[in-house]
């Protein structure tokens, strides 16, 4: 019996062959190429790329739903042994690592522009530009306020986190920081509820976390409206606008995905899934959410405060 158990815990459960990877790749191809076409044709008012991207999104959503439903069914049937569960942990770990490197690239771009390029344009260092290559009003300060076309960059000097701005929109990043940090605590409480086998608290804390994620997204939309309408900060506002919206926009996308993932865990909890010894689906969602929170803290410090 012991040798049989050891064998069971050291070998993988090999599922039947399926078409999930093929259809997922096809859906991603439609989604990405559709978005690219939409961005290229947006000025012409064409909706072809937008339609294709929606189709791709629907295909990806259906495949992921079917695939993960199958994995949940296999786990409920006891087909996932200790070795396979360990591979899930490693897989999620490498996925989060890839996300860390993804954001590291954008933070690196922000550092490169802010700490190196702007001083070079101001004539500092060995690579400093000297001469009449720039417009007379250029100042080597961050954010880059001077612009050849002032209409593209109305008032970027008044940061949305600046206390000098009385509009409530100036404090939206701070509110969102409090909300995300609070949601990190609530999902931790949900994890404690699983360990204590208290399903009522698990459902309650997961629901609170989902609500906080939705509030964060609503406030970020309001922040973008404030940036466009009040500050004149847009994607066309030079390198400052590009780095700002790339960093905050991609993070907002990750918050959207994280909120949806936690909502799925909420549905599973209502259905009676998860036990103290079998809750990796929840734990992986919790790891991802904590990662999103940490990224926002770094983003808040380096984009809004410094």
CATH superfamily of the largest domain: Cytochrome c oxidase, subunit III, four-helix bundle
Helix content: 55-70%
| C-alpha termini separation | 63 Å
Number of domains: 2
The tally of beta strands, per DSSP, is 0
Question: What is the global morphology?
Answer: globular
Task: Provide the structure class.
Answer: mainly alpha
Percent range for β-strand residues: under 5%
CATH architecture of the largest domain: Up-down Bundle
Order of helices and strands: HHHHHHHH
Taking the sheet with the most strands, its summary is: none
Radius of gyration: 24 Å
Count the DSSP helices.
Answer: 8
Key words describing this protein structure:
306 residues; mainly alpha; Four Helix Bundle (Hemerythrin (Met), subunit A); 8 helices; globular
Characterize the structure shown.
The structure is a single chain. The protein is mostly helical and 306 residues long. The protein folds into two domains: 80 residues; 216 residues, Four Helix Bundle (Hemerythrin (Met), subunit A) (Up-down Bundle). The chain has eight helices and no strands. The longest helix has 40 residues.
Outline:
With 306 residues, this protein is mainly alpha-helical. It has helices spanning 2-8, 20-41, 48-76, 82-121, 172-195, 199-231, 238-270, 280-305.
SSE layout and pairings?
Blueprint: H1 2-8, H2 20-41, H3 48-76, H4 82-121, H5 172-195, H6 199-231, H7 238-270, H8 280-305
């Amino acid at each position: 019996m012991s040798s049989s158990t050891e064998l069971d815990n050291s070998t993988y459960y090999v599922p039947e062959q399926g078409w999930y990877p093929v259809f997922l790749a096809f859906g991603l191809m439609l989604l990405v190429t559709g978005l690219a076409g939409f961005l290229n044709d947006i000025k012409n008012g064409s909706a072809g790329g937008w339609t294709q991207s929606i189709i791709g999104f629907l295909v990806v959503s259906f495949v992921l739903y079917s695939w993960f439903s199958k994995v949940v069914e296999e786990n409920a049937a006891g087909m996932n042994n200790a070795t396979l569960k360990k591979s899930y942990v490693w897989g999620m770990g490498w996925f989060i690592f890839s996300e860390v490197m993804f954001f590291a690239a954008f933070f690196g771009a922000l550092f490169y522009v802010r700490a190196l390029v702007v001083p070079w344009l101001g004539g500092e260092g060995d690579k400093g530009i000297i001469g009449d290559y720039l417009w007379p009003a250029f100042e080597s300060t961050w954010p880059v306020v001077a612009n050849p076309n002032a209409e593209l960059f109305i008032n970027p000097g008044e940061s949305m986190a600046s206390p000098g701005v009385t509009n409530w929109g100036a404090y939206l990043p701070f509110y969102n920081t409090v909300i995300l940090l609070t949601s990190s605590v609530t999902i931790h409480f949900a994890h404690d509820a699983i360990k204590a086998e208290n399903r009522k608290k698990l459902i309650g804390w997961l629901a609170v976390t989902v609500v906080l994620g939705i509030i964060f997204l609503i406030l970020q939309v309001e922040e973008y409206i404030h940036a466009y309408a009040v500050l004149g900060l847009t994607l066309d506002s030079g390198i400052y606008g590009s780095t700002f919206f790339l960093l905050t926009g991609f993070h907002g996308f990750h918050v959207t995905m994280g909120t949806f993932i936690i909502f799925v865990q909420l549905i599973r909890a209502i259905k009676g899934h998860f036990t103290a010894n079998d809750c990796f689906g929840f734990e992986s969602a919790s790891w991802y959410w904590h990662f999103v929170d940490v990224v926002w803290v770094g983003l808040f410090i380096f984009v809004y405060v410094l």
